[in-house]
Design brief:
The chain has two domains: 108 residues, Beta-Lactamase, CATH 3.30.450; 200 residues, Hypothetical protein af1432 (Orthogonal Bundle). 49% of the residues lie in helices and 11% in strands. Strands 2-1-5-4-3 form a five-stranded antiparallel beta sheet, sandwiched between helices. It starts with 10 loop residues before the first strand and ends with a helix. The relative contact order is 0.09. Bound molecules: fe (ii) ion (FE2) (2 copies). One fe (ii) ion (FE2) binds next to loops.
Length: 318
């Protein structure tokens, strides 16, 4: 178990009973360092329940978080304190000092001001929405497809146990995967089956999309998605023929979402496949779509949870 180190503590909550769980709710914060006071005001003397309730926004939530801390020995969540967006993180550790019983435990906690990164994220998500609207205007037929891709990608990333931030980001940036179609809008809107030459021009949308977002700091994930969503696990995709883990995880996730939605939806050039037939295509291939195109672990997660993807398609279908 880690030891308490005052230099690294924003504040410490000393309580011999934290592991046994008699009551840490009423335990007072006994130490607050200077930067904490500067950023968030003096917290010393407040109870741990008061602080958690304040940051989380309610006393019930504060109790819930205390229980979590007690059972898991650590806690991390985001909330508001002193008008700022903060990340709270803490762990139960041993405390050793002269005259203190060796079994003493304490909660060592840190508070980070994430207001700026929070605002930046909001700006990026807003930018993503604006770009998506531009893409939709150029490609009306697939308009609602892009919103569904966000939902499938969120689900698949969650099933894959990706980090919270990754899941949040992919469900905001997956919608940009086809933004490069703006450059080929006149071709994709032709009311007929495209020729091979036209199809090859349309394929450039992955490159165009990448160029559009590549200089936007903070949109690296959007770049990977737009540029790589047609790459295939077996190396047969485009634009670069990347294979396996050369392709970013976000693009591998969006690739499954994109193909699934394309198969089960009506397009100007095709009817919708049934959910059963679509599943069969993912499992056995049909010559155009092959199981080897996809990250095998993600494909397994997708097929194991197929009903959930169908549900998104049905509820989000307009
Ligand atoms: Fe695409
Ligand atoms: Fe798409």
């Amino acid at each position: 178990m880690a030891k308490f180190d005052a230099d690294f503590a924003i504040f410490g909550v000393f309580a011999a009973d934290v592991v046994e769980g008699i009551s840490i709710a009423d335990t007072q914060i006994s130490y607050t360092n200077e930067s904490c006071i500067e950023l968030f005001g003096e917290l010393k003397g407040k109870t741990i329940l008061e602080v958690l309730s304040e940051i989380s926004g309610s006393r019930d939530k504060g109790h819930e978080l205390l229980d979590k801390c007690r059972s898991e020995g650590k806690l991390a969540f985001e909330g508001k304190l002193a008008g700022k967006i903060v990340k709270y993180h803490s762990r139960i550790i041993e405390y050793e000092a002269d005259g203190i019983h060796p079994s003493m435990k304490c909660i060592q906690a840190g508070l980070t001001d994430i207001t700026e990164s929070f605002i930046l994220k909001k700006l990026l998500y807003g930018t993503s929405k604006a770009l998506k609207r531009a893409a939709k205007a150029a490609d009306e037929d697939t308009g609602d497809h892009v919103e569904r891709i966000n939902h499938y990608s969120h689900l698949l990333a969650s099933l894959n146990n990706c980090e919270k931030q990754f899941i949040e980001d992919i469900s905001q940036f997956a919608q940009l995967h086809d933004i490069g179609k703006i450059n080929v809008a006149d071709i994709i809107r032709l009311p007929r089956k495209l020729t091979v030459d036209e199809m090859n021009i349309v394929k450039n949308h992955a490159v165009y999309g990448g160029i559009m977002v590549k200089d936007l700091t903070g949109l690296e994930m959007a770049y990977n998605i737009t540029h790589e969503h047609h790459e295939k696990w077996d190396g047969s995709g485009y634009p670069e023929g990347k294979r396996e883990e050369e392709i970013s995880l976000e693009a591998r996730i969006v690739a499954i979402a994109d193909v699934f939605d394309a198969l089960v939806s009506v397009r100007p050039y095709k009817k919708a496949f049934s959910y059963d037939r679509t599943r069969q295509i993912f499992e056995e291939g049909d010559g155009r779509v092959m199981p080897g195109h996809f990250d095998p672990n993600l494909l397994l997660l997708f097929l194991d949870n197929y009903e959930k993807f169908i549900k998104i398609h049905q509820t989000q279908l307009k």
